[in-house]
Amino acid sequence: MASNVNPTVRRRRLGQELRRLRELKGMTAEEVAERLLVSQSKISRLENGRRSISQRDVRDLCGVYEVEDQRIVDSLMQMAKDSRQQGWWHAFGDIPYSVYIGLETDAESLRVYEPQIITGLLQTRAYAEAIVQGGSPESSEQENDKRVEVRLRRQSRITAEQDPLRLWVVLDEAALHRVVGSRQVMREQLEHVLELSQLPHITVQVLPFEVGAHAGINGQYSILEFADAADSSVVYIEGVTSDLYLEKPHDVQKYTVMYEHLRAQSLNVEQSRRLVERLVKEYAR
Known about the structure:
This protein is an alpha/beta fold and 285 residues long. It has helices at residues 7-25, 29-36, 40-47, 55-64, 70-83, 98-106, 125-135, 141-154, 156-159, 173-177, 183-196, 249-265, 269-284; strands at residues 109-114, 166-172, 202-207, 221-225, 234-237, 244-246.
C-alpha cells in the first residue's frame, strides 16, 4: 500500500461526500435504501465510514443521486478503490480497534484523558506487556505479543522527525500509583514519561487525587483532530467488546469543553513533572 493512502480516512471522506450528495438531493437514507433494495443500516455505515465501500456501491449511489459530472464519479470511484487497500496494522491480523489506529495514523493532534493506566502512546515495552497480559488473561501469548507490537508501532507517530502527532495527555494520579508489572517497570515507565514530556509536541498533566469529583469522572476518552478541514474531529471511547466514535459537532464540543475543565483542574506541566519525579524516586527504593 502506498504510504500516503490511509484506508480509514479514505472511507470517512468518501462517506462524508456521499452524505453530502444525498442531502443535496433531498433524500433520506431510508429512501436511498429502498431505491437500491438494501438496508438503511448499510447506507448509514457507508456514510459514517465504518464499512468498506465498493466501486459498485459508489456507482449505484451516484446513479440514485443523478451525479452528471463524470469527474466527480471518477474521483469517488478512486476513493472507493483506495479505501479497500490495507493499512500497516492489517499485517498483524484482526485488530479490534483497527478503525481507531487508522484515525490516529492520520490525525494531526490527539488529546487523551486516561484515568487508570499510562496511555498507550507513552508506554514502554515492559509496561505494555504487563498491561496487555493483565487485561487479556485468557488470550494466547501469541495474541498478546501481537497487541504489544501494534501498540509500540503506533508510537512512531510521536517520534517521527517530520510532522509528529501533537499529543496532550491528562493522566489521573491513580495511573502513576498503580503498580503494573513491578516497581522497576513502573520506575522505568515514569522515567519514559518524563523523557517524552520534554518533547515540544507532547504535553503531560496529572490530575491529582485532591481534585475529587471532576469532568472526566465517567472514564477514558480521546479527541482526534485532523489537518484537512474536510475531516471532522472524532471523540473515541474504548470499550471491552465495541468502541464508540462520536463525530457530531455538538458531541465533540461537549467532550472538548470537558477536556478543557480537566486541563484546568490538573497540575500544570512543571507541577506534574515534579510529582512524577518524586514517584520515580519512590519506585527506586
